[in-house]
Structure formats: C-alpha cells, structure tokens
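Help!! Second protein's tokens look totally different from the first
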Amino acid sequence: MMENTMQEPTPVQIYREEQKLKRFRSGSFYLKIAVLLIFILVPFLFPSFKSLDLALKIMIFAVLVASFDILLGYTGILSFGHVMFFGIGAYSVAMLMGKYGDPSYLNLTIGFIIALGITSALALLVSFLSLRVKAIFFAMVTLAIAEFAIILATKLSGFTGGEDGIIVSMPGIFKVSFNVGKFMGVEITGRIITYYFILSFCLGLFLLMVRFIHSPLGRVMQAIRDNEPRAEAVGYRTFIVKCISICFGCLVSTILGGLYVMWVGYANPESVLGIPIMLDVLLMEIVGGMGTLYGGLAGAAFLEFAHAFLPDLQNFAKSLFPNAQFLHTALERWLLIFGILFILVVFFFPKGIIGSVQDIIARRKSA
C-alpha cells in the first residue's frame, strides 16, 4: 500500500502535467512553430541578401531584447549598459578573427570564451558597484559605464581600430566564398550556412531564457520586481538574485554580439556599442511588451522593418505619383512617419504588442 501511495502523482504534479498538455495544444504554440518555420525557410522563399539580413537581424535583436527583458521585465532592473556587453562580445570575436589573429575555428572559439570571461567579471563588478543604489540612480551609473566603454573603444584606436573599427573574415564553411552547390534551387554558400548557424544559436539562447524565467529562481526574480521588501521579508537574498539576473542577461548579450560580428563582418563603436543601439533595444522592449520575453520578437520585427523599408518610401512614391512634390517631401522625413507609427502602437497596445494581446486573452478567459 505504501509503495502504491508513493507512486501516485501529487495534485501539483497532475496540475503541471495538465498545463504541459495545454501548452502544446494551444494556438500560441502553433503560432510559435509557424514563426520558426518562416525563419527557417527565408533563404528558400526570399533568397536575396536583404531578406536574409533583415530576418537574421530580427532574430539577433529579438533575443537581445529578451535578454534585456530578463533584467527590466522580470527583475525590475533598468540598465542602460546592456549593449556594452553586446559590444564586448563583438570586439572580442573581431579582434581574434581580424586584428590579432587569423580566421580559424580555434580563434573564433577563443574569442567567444574571452568575451564570456570578461563579461562575467565586469557584470559582477557592475552589479556590486551599481546595485548599491536604487531605481534611476542605478540606470545612470550603468549609462556612465557604457559611455566610458564607448570613449575607450573610440580613443584606443591602436587597439580597437577606433571609429574605423575592425574588419572580420570568417573561416572555412562560414566564408562568403564557400559553396557546396545548389539545394532546392538555392546556392548553399557560406552566407547561408552562417545564417543557419546563428539562427540555431539564437533559438538555443531563447529557449534557455524561457527555461530560466520559469525556474524557481525566475519566480524569485518576478517577486523582487513586484515587491522587493516583501521578497526580502520572506527570506530571499534579493541582492544575490539580482546579481545572477544581471550576469545571465549580460552573458547572453555578449554571445549575441559575437554572432552579430560573424554576420556583418565588422565592429566599430557606433555599430556595436553606440547609444542609438541601446535606444533601439528600449524601443523594441516597449513595442513588444515588458515581462513577456516573446515581445522582443515583435519589437525587433517592428523596428527592423521600419529601418529597412521606410527610407525607400520616397522612391516608391515617386514611381507611383511623380508629380506629388508634397508627398515626396513628407516621405523624405521617414523618421517622422516612424514616430507616428510608434505613437500609434503605444496608444493601441499600452502594454506592448505581446503584453496587450496576453492581457486581452486573460480577460476573455476570466470572463
């Protein structure tokens, strides 16, 4: 009797199994599979470089925003220095592959390892120094550190290449000139192989973050976000948990920086460290929705599509309406159109696209 009792699942285990079954049968699960299939099939459906570049940048920045969401959306930590770690990964790989080493798989691996080591030490140092202050003061400290990193990368031109940056070459199968022939009418070049390599890495990092936020530690992070004094009263060491959250998010950001350099082939302060990139990440976070993780994909898609296609609106209008000078002048200011679109998104989706959709679904279920 005792053995049978021990083998019977508890109510909590039964509930978790039911939730797993619902998760794999829900519409959102099939939507995620459909989105993943689109990314997988992009080289065959839209084989142009512009399409590949757009799809991969959406994926890289979606995961970057998700890593930032670990800090802001799930732990309540606003950091303006998150992109600095993206730049550390980019520069470490670029230096080993372009300035101080030959393109090889070994140097590529060493570049990522060095970047992760530097990030681990620096993220801990930033955590111990900056978490002593709260809220906006923490954000200002991280902004100052990020600005210092940009100044170093710019002024130490003999080491980092300065504003000219570092040109990167890829080894072996990642070379642009590498070609294994055609498959389904598409040339399988080094660019295609690099696309799938980075895509698989991004998917793995994203799944790791999903598992992280659903772990017991992730629940504690959300408790800290909602009410830190109460979490401390319960007995959680909130300082340690916040340090883990920062380090984890920064390590993911560093890996993405190295992957980004593998794709674009160069690194300079403006492209991997600049404040505009941090602003883009913040905008993506707002558009997608804080505390959703999947919102990074919606936000990245919104901004990357805007950057890719809004500047071409003027040429498109000239071909359709050659005499509409006012329209041509208006579309030349594409940033104004982007600002209007951003205001509309925030107005109609106050919690971000994914956050607002989740809120609507939750209200319908409870009704």
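Here's the second one for comparison:
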Amino acid sequence: MKQSELLFRNEVCLEDQRKMKLAYCLISECSQEGQSEPYYGIRITKHLGNSEETEEVNGVSYCKETVISMIKKLFQYEVTPVHLVEIVDGFITQGA
C-alpha cells in the first residue's frame, strides 16, 4: 500500500506575477505483501492557476532519512515536477 506524507510547500511568484504552488511529498510503499521494511520515493505537485502537474519517483531508497534529505534540497531549490526524475538520478549518481 502506497502512502504519501507532505513534507514541504513553496509558493513562488513568477515573472508575470502569477503564483505557482509546489508540494513535496515523501512516498512510502512496501514492494511485496508481508514486507515490513518500506522503500521511499518522492512526489512533487505543481499548482498553477487551474492546472496541476505531478511527477513521482518510486523506490529511491530504503533509507527514509536519505530521501527526506533529497526532498529538502528539492524544496530549497524550488524544483518543479518536470525536473524531478533528472535531478533524483543525479542525486543517486553522486551518492547524495
């Protein structure tokens, strides 16, 4: 069963004065029934006007603290859903 926990929110004022809202969530899911240790992923949702865009990366790590650290960096740099996969791939490659 997949669970999602909202960790951070950003509201960014764009050049044209519109407000973009970003939500950063920790996803936890057990890969197999009966497995007690969940693996963790990341979801970013962007709200702009009446549109919503979401992207998620599942199974990033079994270490919750590692994934929370990644989410904190994504939040600090106001990363949008379109860049999530590429940036998480970079974190994993660098061993962040």
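Reply: Different proteins will give different token patterns, so don't panic. The CA atoms of residues 10 and 78 lie 7 Å apart.
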